[in-house]
Each structure stands twice: as C-alpha cells, then as structure tokens.
C-alpha cells in the first residue's frame, strides 16, 4: 500500500503524490472508500444504468417523432420534455465515463483540482442541477394539469374550447425553463458556490452543501410533496367516480389513463428515493468535507500505517444508495416509453416479424430439401447419358 515518491524520507500512500515535500491526494486515483469493491459497484452500476437509460431514451424519442401528432399535443408533450431531460443527463454521464479523470482533473493533485475545477466539471454541475429541477417542474405541472382535468372537467373542457390551453402550456414551459436559471448563474459567477468535485471517484460535479440544498434539494422536496398530495387527491377522486380500485366494479380506466398514472407512479418512486438520497448527502456534506480535510492533513507529511483514520469518510459514503439511484434512473425512461408506445401496433409488428421469420425458415428448409433432389436427378441423367454413349 505504500509508495515512496522521491527522497527526503517521506513515504506517501499509493493514491497520494508528493508535491513540494507534501503528500497530496491524486485526482486520478483517490477514492473515498478503501474498499475497491464499493468503488467498482458505483462505477459499473453507473455505466450499466446509463447505457440502459440511453437506449430507452433513444427508442422513446424515435417513437415520439413517429407519433408526433399525439406526443406534441398538450399536455402529453410534458412527458417528452422529461425524456429530453433524462437523455441530456445520461449523455453527460456517458461522456464522463469515457474519460472520467481527463475531464474532471485539472491537475495531478486533487487539492489543486478542487481549487480550479475544469470546464466540463462546471458543465456537468449545471446539467445535473438543471435537469433534475426541470424534471421535477415538468412532473409537478403535469400532475397539476391532470388534477384540474379530473376535479374540474367542465372547466377544463371549456378552457380547451376557448383555446386557453395554449396559454397555460406557454406559461408552464416558460416557468420550467426560467426558474432553475438564477441558481445556475449564481453558482457559475460566485466562487463560494462554484460547481466542484464532491465525490471520489467523480461522476458529476455539484455546488457546496448549503447552496445545493436551497437551490436543488429543497425546491425538489416542495414540488415532490405538493405533487404527491395532488396525485393522492386525484386518485381518491377517481376512485369515488369510477371505483377503479374496487374489484367488484365493472368501470375500468382507459389505457391512456393507466399509462399516465404509471408514468406518475414511476417518477414518484424515482423522485422519492433520489430526494431522500440527495437530502442525506446534503445533511452530511459539511461533516464529510471536514473529515476529508482532516484526513488529507494527516497524510500530508507521510503515510504511517494505522495513524490516519478514514473510517469517518467511509461511514458517510453511500455507494450502494448511489447504485440504486442509477438503476431507478435507468427504469424511468421505460415508463415513459410505455406511455408513448401503442402496444397494439407493436403487437402487429411483432406478429408480422414472426410470420416473416417463419416464411424465411420455411423457404430455406424447402431449398435445402430440393438441393439433394436436383443433385440426384443430375447424377441419374449423367449415368443415362454415359450408358447411351457406350
């Protein structure tokens, strides 16, 4: 575990480098947990989840383009906006996974990198903040619109006939785009709140704990709590009107209603876990930074086995929770894809593909059977011609 960097009798850990007679953590190898397994779980879960999510997002966008008349209609277009947010976030994660340390490390020294974050680090910080808050806004406004249609159907129909929906849609879109911007501007211009590396190994940069809480976690908490309350009221109202939770009732929800409810529920599960994880991270961020600084100072003048305790850092780290968050993120586009797809059309395409495959196999089978017959007939003809020649 020990590595001697230079002379002067100072021995640094293998994930530290000696700079000006001081051992500093290496940006490309320092990890906040001593367990290699935990780091690998986080890295591979991120890679697998982002690959799955990107696949679902691409398919969802392709289907959305094909069914543009339905998906670009109000308010279904809000679901498409959520797909775009997830796609942007996943693409940034995939790019980061390709060259993680080259994109996030501005120096060999992690301490120097923390003082001068890279442009990509700032970009990833903006991306994660903007997309998460944006998704929460799209989800909340969609639930609110659904609430209005279920509880006030006559007024909703009147708004639609009068053409007021386009003004509602314009207002929702402008608010969702503009509301996250002030915090982004503050974090990019104020050095105290700048986006920086917060986890090791790095996946996405973020602002410091208090700014992160007030600009992202708290707004998401409020939007999520309000949306869940509205959704419960909607479900209760639908239960009273249609008895869709009553097994003895013959009244059933339409396929479209089931699909939109599934989208709401999937985002609720993903949102609940993500907000819980983010809240826990924000609550321990100051403690984590203090423990990290204490550990770096302890290792600064050389590594002595058993002297520097990184147990506090490891206790605060939650790689398994991060892995679960990535997995849930990969499943979220699947719910959106279910909302977009027309399963009857998919079934018809599947049946056509199966029939075409059967025809091809049948043709190949007949072709294989005909080849020996042709060969035997040619052989018989050659024998007859030889006999006649004799």
Number of DSSP strand runs = 4
CATH architectural name of the largest domain:
Up-down Bundle
Profile the largest sheet. 2 strands, antiparallel
Q: From N to C, what is the helix and strand string?
A: EEEEHHHHHHHHHHHHHHH
Domain tally: 2
Strand order of the largest sheet: 1-2
Number of helices: 15
Tell me the name of the CATH homologous superfamily of the largest domain: Rhodopsin 7-helix transmembrane proteins
> What spatial form do the alpha-carbon principal axes imply?
globular
Provide the structure class.
mainly alpha
* CATH T-level fold name of the largest domain: Rhopdopsin 7-helix transmembrane proteins
Query: CATH class of the largest domain, please?
Result: Mainly Alpha
Strand portion, in percent? under 5%
Task: Report the span from N to C terminus.
Answer: 91 Å
Give the % helix. over 70%
Q: Outline the low-pLDDT stretches.
A: 1-7
Radius of gyration: 30 Å
Transmembrane segments: 41-65, 77-98, 127-147, 167-193, 213-238, 259-277, 320-341
Keywords: Membrane, Transmembrane, Transmembrane helix
How is the secondary structure organized here?
Blueprint lengths: L1 E3 L6 E3 L2 E4 L2 E4 L10 H31 L1 H4 L5 H22 L1 H5 L5 H6 L3 H33 L1 H10 L2 H14 L2 H9 L19 H34 L12 H29 L1 H15 L11 H6 L2 H22 L2 H47 L1
Antiparallel strand pairs: 1-2, 3-4
Keywords: Membrane, Transmembrane, Transmembrane helix
């Amino acid at each position: 575990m020990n590595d001697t960097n230079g002379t002067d009798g100072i021995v640094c850990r293998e994930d530290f480098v000696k700079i000006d007679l001081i051992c500093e953590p290496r940006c490309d190898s320092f990890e906040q947990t001593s367990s290699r397994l935990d780091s690998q779980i986080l890295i591979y879960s991120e890679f697998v989840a982002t690959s799955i999510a990107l696949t679902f997002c691409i398919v969802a966008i392709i289907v959305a383009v094909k069914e543009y008349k339905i998906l670009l209609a109000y308010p279904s277009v809000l679901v498409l906006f959520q797909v775009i947010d997830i796609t942007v976030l996943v693409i940034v994660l995939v790019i980061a996974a390709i060259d993680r340390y080259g994109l996030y490390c501005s120096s060999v020294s992690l301490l120097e990198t923390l003082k001068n974050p890279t442009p990509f680090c700032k970009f990833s910080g903006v991306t994660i903040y903007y997309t998460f808050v944006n998704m929460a806004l799209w989800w909340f406004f969609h639930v609110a619109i659904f609430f209005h249609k279920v509880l006030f159907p006559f007024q909703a129909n009147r708004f639609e006939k009068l053409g007021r929906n386009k003004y509602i849609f314009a207002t929702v879109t402008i608010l969702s785009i503009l509301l996250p911007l002030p915090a982004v501007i503050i974090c990019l211009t104020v050095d105290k709140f700048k986006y920086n590396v917060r986890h090791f190994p790095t996946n996405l940069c973020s602002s410091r704990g208090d700014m992160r809480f007030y600009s992202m976690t708290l707004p998401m908490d409020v939007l999520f709590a309000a949306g869940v309350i509205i959704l419960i009221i909607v479900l209760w109202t639908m239960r009273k009107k249609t008895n869709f939770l009553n097994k003895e009732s013959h009244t059933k929800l339409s396929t479209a209603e089931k699909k939109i409810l599934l989208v709401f529920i999937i985002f609720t599960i993903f949102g609940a876990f993500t907000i819980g994880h983010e809240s826990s991270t924000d609550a321990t961020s100051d403690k984590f930074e203090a423990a990290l600084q204490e550990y770096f100072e302890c290792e600064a003048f050389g590594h002595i086995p058993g002297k520097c305790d990184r147990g506090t850092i490891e206790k605060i780290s939650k790689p398994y929770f991060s892995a679960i968050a990535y997995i849930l993120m990969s499943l979220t586009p699947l719910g959106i894809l279910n909302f977009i797809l027309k399963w009857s059309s998919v079934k018809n395409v599947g049946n056509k593909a199966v029939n075409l495959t059967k025809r091809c196999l049948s043709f190949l089978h007949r072709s294989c059977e005909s080849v020996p017959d042709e060969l035997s007939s040619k052989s018989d003809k050659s024998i007859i011609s030889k006999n006649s020649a004799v």
